[in-house]
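INFO batch 0412 | record 1 of 1 | parsing
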Amino acid sequence: MLDIVNYKAETAALLPIKPKFVEKILSGEKTVEFRKIVFKQNIERIIIYSSSPVKRVVAICDVKTINRERPLTLWKKYRHVGGIEYSEYADYYRNKEYGVAIELTNVRVLDKPLELSDLVDIKVAPQSFMYVDTFTISEIEKNEGVK
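INFO prediction complete | emitting tokens
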């Protein structure tokens, strides 16, 4: 039974990320994930979904900070930990006034990657991101274990 007195609601987001960037996150080379839009909810954790061709939830991590700035400002601050070349970064933010940098910390790799169908209420990978509740986070950590 849920202990309402000591219960702390936690919100996470499932982010589909290209496999080449997931590899860099897991190796520690990339500690910032760039996005075009900022979350409307306070996000404390990120569930990392490696997109096609992998199509698996592979890790979970904590959010250190989320910064919304002009793309050039973000580049100057995070270029050394962004795991992306400037040309690809510039293409991603072309015609965008603002960008978002999500600083990732405490990355934990799942012992066994999960298909989305293994998770309750998630059937299709989101285009950009999807909010995920505490129950889903605990299911990921409990059912598969985290390295």
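INFO post-check: The longest strand covers residues 99-114.
INFO record closed
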